[in-house]
Amino acid sequence: MKKKPDLKLWIGIGISVFFLFLLFRKIDFSKLGAAFRELDYRFIPPAILLTFVSYYLRAVRWKYLLLPIKKTSMGNLFPSTLIGYMANNLLPARLGEFVRAYSLGQKEGIGTSAVFASLVVDRLCDGFTILLVLLVTFFTIKLPPGMEHIQRGLVTGGYVTFGLYVGVLAFLALLKTRTEWTVRLVTRILQPVAPRFAEQVATQLRHFISGILIPSRPREIGAVVVSSLLIWASAIWPVDLVLRSFGVALPITASMFIMVFLVFAVMVPASPGFVGTYHFACVTALSAFELRSEKALSIALVTHGLSFFPVIVAGLYCVWRDKLSLKNISAANDSQSGASA
């Protein structure tokens, strides 16, 4: 049976092409080449190293989030993390999250759905940590005169995102503590509009929340908090190193400011690897510091390249070493999606 075209994938590619057009339409390629010639390559190796440190710290945090299910091995967690982020860069629809869960589930003998549930908590941890970065940036960054509108827009986006995360957290807390009451409430809201869909949602919510387990010991909670802060510190530092490699000396809050834009960018539907949206967000953030377009784009390309190519190489090596098949993983994802439909 012939597979239907993936509409979401083509929409994402279309969005990426649109943002790439906006970026390159007024670029002087001779000036872009000149900007790249200014690059000091000595800053690149430490930036790559710090990027992998952030992936390793993600594996550490994941270990603590999985403790209520099973004590897992870092020898399995770290490669699975690399494989997942590699897949996010190469496959559509953020399939990397499923790949990451599937890879670890196969190695540790844990059900993929249970591992995937831990990644929901993992993403919530990221959300609240980046909100902390956002708030610190609000109160410490000083943009050049005339750029106040960007800061106001960022503040508005931060408040909206904060409200969404608080809402999600409150819903999950209710779903965990008063499962049946919350499920009935959701069903009652959806029933008049889509009765069949309401039943499916109710079933999925019960399965989902039963798989979410959160560490309860103070030491484990502390480890999750500390690792979350270190993850984002080691993700922001490479941005600062790339800026310095181009001779741009800005306070670390500027790198935090850029990272906030990048986080919002990866939420936008785009092609695999967030091509276009990532670069547009980075250039937009840098424009607040009055950098010319060609230098800003060169910084964006190098920053994206550091988060794109090294993890792909490492992830593909782990796939080869562990004898995993992306085709089988994709088939397993299709099977699970079909079973939950």
Give me some keywords for this one.
globular; single chain; 341 residues; 14 helices
Question: Could you describe the 3D structure shown?
Answer:
The protein has 341 residues and is mainly α. The chain has one domain. The protein has helices spanning 7-24, 29-37, 44-65, 74-90, 96-108, 112-140, 148-177, 179-190, 195-211, 218-245, 252-265, 277-287, 293-321, 326-340. Helix 3 (44-65) packs across helix 4, helix 6 packs across helix 11 (252-265) and helix 7 crosses helix 8 (179-190). The model has no long low-confidence stretch (mean pLDDT 86).
Topology:
Blueprint: H1 7-24, H2 29-37, H3 44-65, H4 74-90, H5 96-108, H6 112-140, H7 148-177, H8 179-190, H9 195-211, H10 218-245, H11 252-265, H12 277-287, H13 293-321, H14 326-340
Helix pairs in contact: 1-12, 2-13, 3-4, 3-10, 3-13, 4-5, 4-13, 5-6, 5-14, 6-7, 6-10, 6-11, 7-8, 8-9, 10-11, 11-12, 12-13
Brief summary of the model shown:
With 341 residues, the protein is mainly alpha-helical. 77% of the residues lie in helices and 0% in strands. The relative contact order is 0.16.
Largest beta sheet, briefly? none
Number of strands: 0
Order of helices and strands: HHHHHHHHHHHHHH
Distance between the termini: 19 Å
How many DSSP helices? 14
Point out poorly predicted stretches: none
How large, in whole angstroms, is the Cα Rg? 21 Å
Structural class: mainly alpha
From the spread of the alpha carbons, the general shape counts as: globular
Q: Helical percent range? A: over 70%
User: What is the average of the pLDDT values?
Assistant: 86
What proportion strand? under 5%
Protein name: Membrane protein
Keywords: Cell membrane, Membrane, Transmembrane, Transmembrane helix
InterPro entries: L-PG_synthase/AglD
GO cellular component, one term: plasma membrane
